[in-house]
Amino acid sequence: MPEASKRSVGITCDDTGKRKSQKAFRVDKCKILLSERSSNCKFESLKLALIIVTCCTILTLAFSPIMSKEQQLRPGSRTRLADVARMWQTTLPDPRYISQLDVDWGLMSSVLEDVKAKEGDLRIGLLNFNSSEVEFWRRTLPHAEFSSVHLDYADPSITWKVLYPEWIDEEGEYDVPACPYLPQPQDKKGSRYDLIAAKLPCDRSGSWSRDVARLHLQLAAAKLAASASAGRSQVHVLLVTDCLPVPNLFGCRDLARHQGNLWLYKPETAALQEKLRLPIGSCELAIPFEAKVRMYTEVGRREAYATILHSAEQYVCGAIAAAKSIRLAGSVRDLVILVDGTISERERSGLEDAGWKVRTIQRIRNPKAKRDAYNEWNYSKFRLWQLTDYDKIIFIDADLLVLRNIDFLFAMPEISAIGNNATLFNSGVMVIEPSNCTFQLLMEHIDEITSYNGGDQGYLNEIFTWWHRIPKHTNFLKHFWAGDTAKRKARKDRLFGADPPVLYVVHYLGLKPWLCFRDYDCNWDLQMFWGFASDAAHATWWKVHDALSENLQRFCLLQTKTKAFLEYNRRQAAKANFPDGHWRRNISDPRLHICDEKFCSWERMLLNWGETNSSNASS
Ligand SMILES: *[C@@H]1O[C@H](CO)[C@@H](O)[C@H](O)[C@H]1NC(C)=O
Ligand SMILES: *[C@@H]1O[C@H](CO)[C@@H](O)[C@H](O)[C@H]1NC(C)=O
Ligand SMILES: *[C@@H]1O[C@H](CO)[C@@H](O)[C@H](O)[C@H]1NC(C)=O
Ligand SMILES: *[C@@H]1O[C@H](CO)[C@@H](O)[C@H](O)[C@H]1NC(C)=O
Ligand SMILES: *[C@@H]1O[C@H](CO)[C@@H](O)[C@H](O)[C@H]1NC(C)=O
Ligand SMILES: *[C@@H]1O[C@H](CO)[C@@H](O)[C@H](O)[C@H]1NC(C)=O
Q1: Are residues 176 and 270 in the same domain?
Q2: Measured CA distances, 532 to 320, 373, 525, 535 (Å)
Q3: Across 550-563, average pLDDT
Q4: Nearest residue by C-alpha to atom 8 in ligand 5
Q5: d(CA 71, CA 106)
Q6: Which atom of ligand 6 has the smallest separation from the CA of 616?
Q7: By CB count within 10 A, which of 31, 43, 221, 231 is most buried?
Q8: How many CB atoms lie within 10 A of CB 123?
Q9: Which is higher by pLDDT, 596 or 294?
Q10: Where found in the cell (predicted)?
Q11: Which residues pair with 572 in a beta bridge?
């Protein structure tokens, strides 16, 4: 069991020691590791120290006045040297960083009214303003003290795809994933500011929300704000841009004023510092390594698991099983379920019995969806942000099971999720931070943003482009790729069936286990769904089902039309002689014979579908 969990975590000190690659080592991480398990890390720390010493010597010799202490600690020696070299050459601005936007200095003066009212002279750090703009700054605030903070440009090889790779080697089988290095702002050590102002590019003709220079500048502004506020009263951050700043770095709750293209924030320094400790993209796991070892145990009164049922009674059983699984995994956090009017009183009481606190919501229509489309109401998920009696929510889809406690995810910021495809995250399990103004933000863009799949996942990915990767074992999709080898498939099946569990969460894609007979995964009977078929995962779900009280199991009965549908598919599979042979099995699931509807003859229903009586599912 500890062995298994280590595999799934993938990164522990011992593991890292075995690896050849050194590039993943970041100083702060090693510190954590060192303090936790000093003996295993000794060797690593020696090597690391050696690298640091070597780099530092080279750098200090060559460019000693420029390097700040922080950068000297960076071990990525070759790129660092290149950066430093470029710093000397560069005089021309990098087009990626240029913003053509004209600043309205009158408006600026009024937006800064509150900041100006502070006692004493203001100290202002400027990032990415050109010389004429700096001159305007001086004229606008004649008593302030300005410094233009130097920021090296990001290496051109760093694209958004590099920051957000589709796949990373989470378990470190071949290599330790590492994010590339983005240069840090170079302010004098101990500089203090009252205001950090940064001008951000925003190319609306391109993918402005997935723009490396834009993110880099915002991270630099955050870094300056987090480190430069020491001893002073609250530091402000002013972003000059036409487009929405990264909403989970500079949150709307911290937005003090917003006029035109001026966004004035009053961020919480501690929160910024936390966010700056995250990897810059999904190029590394964001999970604090030690969090997996040391279970997050504090009692979180303002933390809850949440899910949502909209226009989908069929998921009631799924949600009941999901709640049971969370409790079986040992979490005692609140469970909140958002339901709309389509869920009956009886079903609500079932959900409550299962442990969910039921809240009724108005559905939210996707204005771009077709009427009655399957995803017409998927934007209802935004209502999660209205659960403001909680600070953190782990959202889970209703079609998954929690096999091992994932409370440690409450330590993660918005939005933490697993990768989906391309640069996107999967919204099946995600950590969010409820906030009325974030909800407002999501609603404001509803007519403008197009979701690539018409669902909430596509939409949320447009707003939260800066997301944080958690291990895929925390939302393991029940899915096999057509190209998976038999060995790979067998390995996945072992994961689905492992007892004690290895996976934290199994996400049941395809036909849901409670809508199949318990005898086998009915995805086998539809060729289109073979990629979702796993008897091992199916059996795992049924174990949770069997742990439900008899009363709750009643919410998992099959409707007549579902029975007919299943038998229909089984017969088609028989006719096509599918090689897996599941269709040969006799159905022993007692639910076949239990019916609480008026019309119970699934056989007759089948006849209407052009099927004869001859072969029969019942044993
Ligand atoms: C600074 O930027 C502004 C806005 O794009 C531009 O109008 C101005 O010419 C620039 N000044 C210099 C010296 O580059
Ligand atoms: C992957 O993501 C892109 C958006 O970048 C989307 O258009 C595409 O349909 C996605 N593919 C799959 C298989 O989901
Ligand atoms: C958010 O809005 C709701 C009403 O829509 C209100 O009841 C709640 O108190 C608000 N939460 C906060 C934290 O302001
Ligand atoms: C929309 O919601 C339905 C029901 O919850 C779900 O089955 C479907 O996968 C969702 N679609 C998208 C595109 O998110
Ligand atoms: C299914 O049941 C029938 C009749 O009860 C029996 O003849 C047959 O052998 C059974 N098939 C399997 C695969 O158990
Ligand atoms: C089909 O089978 C059911 C019982 O399994 C029987 O009541 C019905 O009469 C049969 N119908 C036909 C058309 O054979």
Answers
A1: yes
A2: 22, 23, 11, 10
A3: 97
A4: 586
A5: 38
A6: 5
A7: 221
A8: 18
A9: 596
A10: Golgi apparatus membrane
A11: none
pLDDT at 233: 65
Is 508 among the domain residues? no
- List all residues whose CB is within 6 A of at least one atom of ligand 6: 603, 613
Q: What is the DSSP letter of 132?
A: H
| CA nearest ligand 5 atom 10, residue | 586
**Mutation to probe ligand 2, out of 160, 421, 426 (largest number of atoms < 8 A from CB):** 421
Q: State residue 473's pLDDT score.
A: 95
The CATH number given to whatever domain includes residue 402 is 3.90.550.10
Is any ligand 4 atom within 6 A of the Cβ of residue 454? yes
Distance of CA 261 to the CA centre of its chain: 28
* Domain assignment of residue 108, given as a range: 95-276
454 Rama class: left (phi>0) / alpha (psi -120 to 50) / beta: left
pLDDT at 39: 36
Query: Does the pLDDT at position 222 exceed 60?
Result: yes
CA of 273 to the centre of ligand 4 (A): 36
What's the domain count of the chain?
4
Instruction: Enumerate the β-bridge partners of residue 587.
Output: 618
Q: What's the predicted TM-score (pTM) here?
A: 0.83
In a domain, 549, yes or no: no
Q: 586: CA distance to ligand 5 center in Å?
A: 6
For residues 73 and 121, state if they share a domain.
no
Q: Is 377 in the same domain as 311?
A: yes
Are 261 and 307 within one domain? no
Q: Residues with beta carbon inside 6 Å of ligand 2?
A: 421-422, 424, 452
Q: To test ligand 3's pocket by mutation, which of 302, 388, 441 has the most ligand atoms within 8 angstroms of CB?
A: 388
Question: Which ligand approaches the C-alpha of residue 388 most closely?
Answer: 3
Mean pLDDT of the chain: 85
What residue type is 485 in one-letter code? Answer: T
Determine the distance separating the centroid of ligand 5 and the alpha carbon of 523, expressed in angstroms: 21
pLDDT in tens, 447-506: 988 898 889 999 999 999 999 999 999 999 999 999 999 999 999 999 999 999 999 999
Q: Say whether both 596 and 452 belong to one domain.
A: no
